[in-house]
Amino acid sequence: MSTDLETAVDRTGLRRVVIDPVSRVEGHGKVTLLLDEAGHVHEARLHIVEFRGFEAFIEGRPYWEVPVMVQRLCGICPVSHHLAAAKALDPVVGALQVTPTADKMRRLMHYGQILQSHALHFFHLSSPDLLFGFDSEVGKRNIVGIAEAYPEVARQGVGLRRFGQQIIKATAGKRIHGTAAVPGGINHHLAPEDRDALSAEADAMVAWAQAAVHLVRRLHEADPSLYDRFGRFESSLLSLVRADGAMDLYDGQLRLRDAAGTILRDGVAVDDYMDFITESVKPWSYMKFPYVTDMGAAAGWYKVGPLARVQNCDFIPSPLAEAERRAFADYASGTIQHAPLAYHWARMIEMLHAAEVIRDLLADPDLVRGERMAGGVRRTNGVGVIEAPRGTLIHHYAVNDDDLVSWCNLIVSTTHNNQAMNTAVREVARQYLDGHTLTEGLLNHIEVAIRAFDPCLSCATHALGKMPLALELRDAGGTLVDRVMRHP
């Protein structure tokens, strides 16, 4: 048996089990397991089977189209791509620093996105597993089942997501695929009537987000043997942090912390990401495998997203979320929490932080007046990095003298977590499936581990030019006539 379960030593005689598609995640992926006659697992892989190739679509387009175009990467987190692209293209119009009004409008839009995405993931997609059990009746594992059994939880979850969507509509112009962030700033102010309507609900959203944190915390405290062990593995943590070490989901510098909690790299400028991160490819997935370059592929991979961010920052600059961060740290006696299910707890802490930031920002007069655009000496390329709901999101563009994008590179949040998700799948296969008769409930354990990362699989497929390709020709009866393989 292969010790790491990535590739079986000998596939002869092994049975193939496929989970296709992985459900209740954004995008399309599948898991394959290779088992012997006794049910022992020899190989477990999370495959990303979609291909998007947005880096190629962008090349040759006018740069000002990009913040709108790249949102089509995803229907769940378009705001993240919209803002990362606008940030990357700010230097192209000479806006090395945008105006206070533009900065605050973008931040409000971004924290609205964090709020709605975290609420959607937890209440709609993952809470059925956590509240009913991983192997509960499959027909109940959905938001309708939650609404029947836990009506107040469902009501607040739906309400939190609605509020986040309203923030996005008010700032971006539309709930999905807005147009407000442009290179150099923002194209409108927040309308006073929108500000007043949102402010009227802000305190309730903070209270509901705090209740969600307490709900997840109670789940951990009630069953630590499950929540602390399920799919657990150790890795480094990567995220943006503010210059003073605070959590900042919109801007900052890169920080890498090792599995024991020691800061390995700090203050890495986002413009230097290409010297810091390398992406490798494997022949069985369209999603790349990033790692810290000088640590190598075997030791340099890491986690991103809420579990990394909550433990990578020194503090959260909003009082209620900071108190919950401290409780989170105390639960693990100050050590790093690595269990994938802790992502949900960290995610709800971030949702609370987002609700607090939104409430406070709505009182800022710069949102409804002030200069919207900045400019200066133009540059030919720019890097925009943001902490999207699922993790660190990097956009990088070069623009030629004709104002056309000549080169583009995207490292999407879920891509950073590729190795981590595969490792979680293998740990769960080892802990729960190996040697057992497979049932739907047991296979759902694999999906529970993947869902904990809240992957956005359609965003994350970017192996253009290096991907393997298999082309099969079959006749009307399904018989294979010819097969052509292209290897990376």
TrEMBL record:
Keywords noted in UniProt: Iron, Magnesium, Metal-binding, Nickel, Oxidoreductase
Cofactor dependency: Ni(2+); Fe cation
The keyword Iron is annotated on this UniProt entry: yes
Keyword Magnesium attributed: yes
GO molecular function, one term: ferredoxin hydrogenase activity
Highest taxon, organism lineage: Bacteria
Annotated binding of Fe cation, by residue: C77, C459
Binding annotation for Mg(2+): E55, L410, H462
Pfam families assigned to the protein according to its UniProt record, in alphabetical order: NiFeSe_Hases
Alphabetical list of Gene3D superfamilies matching this protein: Cytochrome-c3 Hydrogenase, chain B (1.10.645.10)
Binding-site residues for Ni(2+), renumbered to this chain: C74, C77, C456
Family under the similarity heading: Belongs to the [NiFe]/[NiFeSe] hydrogenase large subunit family.
Protein name: Ni/Fe hydrogenase subunit alpha
Species annotation: Nitrogeniibacter mangrovi
